[in-house]
């Protein structure tokens, strides 16, 4: 008797919020009091193995319920899917979700709906990697180039990257991959840390954490800037003194400035040797980024965490607007779209330094950067993954940092599963933490 086909039976959603505004963790010039949050999705099936797929998208508090509702709007596309077929071709679901003719109107391919698609698609990849018994980076790196190309939607990209060009990049990327894998497993992937640099931290805390970062092996730190120039000069001076001349110092304006203001402000901080200025202006302003880049060199321009799809990355690269591409694992439409962005960056010869931090973004994006190293770029030169020392304790397989490097994950999956006790405590508004708050909007437990 043939075994019954296993199918997806549930897409569970959770509104999870952490009260990070209490200590000003994550504070910057545009977002002074974030409560780091996750719209969290869990795929369940009737398969005998009992494996689940976990995915999420990141928000900073209010509106996380809107993001959860967007994920729930996709449930009809997911329930009843053949598990084996879904895991063999996650791109099939990605294409169906993006192509929903009515939900698509809410983007198209941008904003809350597209981030919801990313959460669901990433949950499928988590399930596929678990079923394969491999961490996601390894599942991707082991995959045949032809299969990877088949996972990518090349619509709107072929004036910059064709499937044939992508296939060529992936075939060349396989050369020497075995040696790189051995180095990755031994040494890990270089990281930098933003933990010292939140705008709400006082100077003593900045200096202490910056010095500790160097002791811990980091060769780059990042500071938030953009609210007050005199404060930024003082803080950059303190940070440079704490880390010395040989550690890179990046700065991040979080979209605070107009174009002319970005140029003027970055030049004013140039004496401290910033390696890059991140998100100097509106994330949608392609020509503005290009103008800033040409005006502030040798300071590099980095952006990408708020670029909402592969087309925006394409235009930024075509316009020569970026020195550094910063992918985000939960902003675009999941792994499939990030594969396209990694290949676009390789096509234009621009290094990828992923955005991370948040809730679980470090856990996710390490897999994509490691795949890029093993199968696309073949290099870690001028490539680093952001690291923020917050909230990792809520994940079943948290990141491991050793001597300023991300250790390659070994557990099967996408490192996305949260601890059940954390879900129970921080689900909003009924979790045990939030239920004890006299005013949940202020994040203060009774």
**Estimated structural class:** alpha/beta
Number of strands: 12
Radius of gyration: 21 Å
Distance between the termini: 59 Å
Examine the secondary-structure arrangement and name the CATH architecture of the largest domain: Alpha-Beta Barrel
Low-confidence stretches: none
Largest sheet: 9 strands, mixed
CATH topology of the largest domain: TIM Barrel
Order of helices and strands: EEEHHHHHHHHHEHEHEHEHEHEHHEEEHH
Let me know the average pLDDT: 95
CATH superfamily of the largest domain: Enolase-like C-terminal domain
Indicate the overall shape: globular
Strand content: 5-15%
Number of domains: 2
Structure annotation, total helices: 18
Helix residue percentage: 40-55%
